[in-house]
Amino acid sequence: MPTENIRTYDVIVIGAGPVGENVADRTAAAGLSTVIVESELAGGECSYWACDPSKALLRPALFRADAAHVPGLDPAVKGPLDVAAVLAHRDRMASHWKDDGQVEWIKSVGIDLLRGHGRLAGEREVTVETPDGDVVRLHARHAVAVCTGSRAALPPLPGMDQLRPWTSREATSAHQPPGRLVIVGAGVVGVEMATAWQALGSQVTLLAREDGLLPRMEPFAGELVTERLREAGAEVRFGVSVVEAKRADGEGTGEIRIWLSDGSELTADEILFATGRAPRSEDIGLDTVGLEPGNWLTVDDTLTVTAAPGEWLYAVGDVNRRALFTHQGKYQARVAGSVIAARARGERLDTGRWGLHSSTADLEAVPGVVVTDPPVASVGLTAQEAERLGRDVEVVDYEIGHVVGAVQYRPDYQGKARILVDRERQVVVGATFVGPGVDELLYSATVAITGEVPVERLWHAVPAFPTISEVWLRLLETRRDA
Ligand SMILES: Cc1cc2nc3c(=O)[nH]c(=O)nc-3n(C[C@H](O)[C@H](O)[C@H](O)COP(=O)(O)OP(=O)(O)OC[C@H]3O[C@@H](n4cnc5c(N)ncnc54)[C@H](O)[C@@H]3O)c2cc1C
Question: In order of start, what are the domains of the chain with their CATH numbers?
Answer without folding.
Answer: 4-43+99-151+279-361 (3.50.50.60), 160-275 (3.50.50.60), 374-481 (3.30.390.30)
